[in-house]
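Good morning,

Attaching, inline, the backbone tokens for the sequence recovery test we're adding to the shared suite. The designed sequence is right after.
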């Protein structure tokens, strides 16, 4: 089955691949939810708690993840286990 890869630390889209359906439970950073179509200048980020993709401008993501404005990525939906 086709799946979409994301970084488990920050949700950034990492591509797509195929995984046997019975192996899906054992994989981290994988979802069957397709990222939305997006235009140049936007990056899909997977919100694990909500099980959906959001689009953010590249400049905003660069600032958050690279720390250019003194900020770091913080998951807006803290999950409780």
């Amino acid at each position: 089955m086709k799946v979409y890869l994301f970084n488990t630390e920050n949700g950034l889209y990492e591509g797509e691949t195929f995984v046997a359906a019975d192996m899906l439970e054992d994989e981290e950073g994988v979802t069957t939810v397709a990222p939305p179509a997006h235009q140049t200048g936007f990056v899909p980020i997977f919100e694990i708690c909500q099980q959906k993709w959001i689009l953010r401008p590249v400049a905003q993501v660069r600032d958050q993840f690279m720390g250019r404005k003194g900020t770091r990525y913080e998951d807006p939906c803290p999950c409780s286990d």
